[in-house]
Amino acid sequence: MLKRLGPLLLALAFLGRPAVAADCGAVDFMAMPLPVAGTDPVAAALAAAYPNVSVENGAVVLPDGSRLPLGDDPDRAPAARLDAPSLREQFHDRYPLAFDLESRGRPWFDPGRARSEDFFQALYGSSAAAVKRQLEKTVISGGATATFYMTRAQGVACQMAAALAAVAALPIDWRPFFRDVGGSFNWRPIAGTTRYSAHSYGIAFDLNTALGGYWRWSGRAEGDAGPYANRIPREIVETFERYGFIWGGKWHHFDGMHFEYRPELILHARMMDR
Q1: Which of 35, 88, 113, 188 is most solvent-facing, going by the fewest CB within 10 Å?
Q2: Is 5 exposed, middle or buried (0-12, 13-18, 19+ CB in 10 A)?
Q3: For residue 245, what are the β-bridge partners?
C-alpha cells in the first residue's frame, strides 16, 4: 500500500502538508496524549509505544503471548548494563528532548544504546531471514534520493515514510544529508562487540556517513568518546524524533549519522519532563 501511495505522499509533503502521517496511520509521538500522572512511566511508555504489547504485573506481554519481566535498574556498571540490560535498565539514561549536546559530555550517557535482545527479537525477528520477510522500501527524493529498508513490524516503515515526507517539506536544504547514506537493514553485531546492532531489526538507518561522525573513528577509548562536532541540522533530528526515531548524536559514544526507532524513550522523556 505504501509503495503505491509513496509518490502522492511526497507530493503532498512538498506542498507543505507534513500531516501525511494520517495516510498510513503514523503517530506523532511528541503530540500523543500522555498517560495519567502516577503510573509507572517505564511500563506506560512501553505499552503506548508498541501497538501489540501490554504490561501486566511487572512484565511485558509480547506479541507471541510470552512475558518478559520489566526487571530492576540497580545502577550497575555501564558495561554490564549494555551487555544484558533489563527492560527497565533501557531507560536508565533519560533521552534528552532538547536539542542540546551538553548531556552527552558525561561518560557513558547513552540513552538508547542499552537494548534487551530478547525484547527486540520478539518484536522484529530473531534471525536475518525473519526480519527480511517484513522489510519495506522507503524513499526520500527531491534533488537527492535515498532508499531505506525498514521493517513493517510495529509500524516502523509507516513511521519512516511519514518522517521522510516531513523532512522533504522542511524549509532547509536537507539534501546533503541524504547523499551517500550509510544504509538501513543489516543483520550484524555492533563493531567491537557481540551485541546485535539495531540495524539487524530493520529499525535503524544512517544518514551521510561523511557528515555524521562516529566515536570509534576518533580512536578514543570507550567511556572517553571526547567532543562531538555536530553537522546534522536540528530540524532533521527533531522531525525524526516526532515519529519515534532517536538520534545517536545525543550519546556520549556519539553516532551522529544514526537514528533508530525507540518511541518508548521519547514518551518516557516526555512523561518525566512534565
Answers
A1: 188
A2: middle
A3: 261
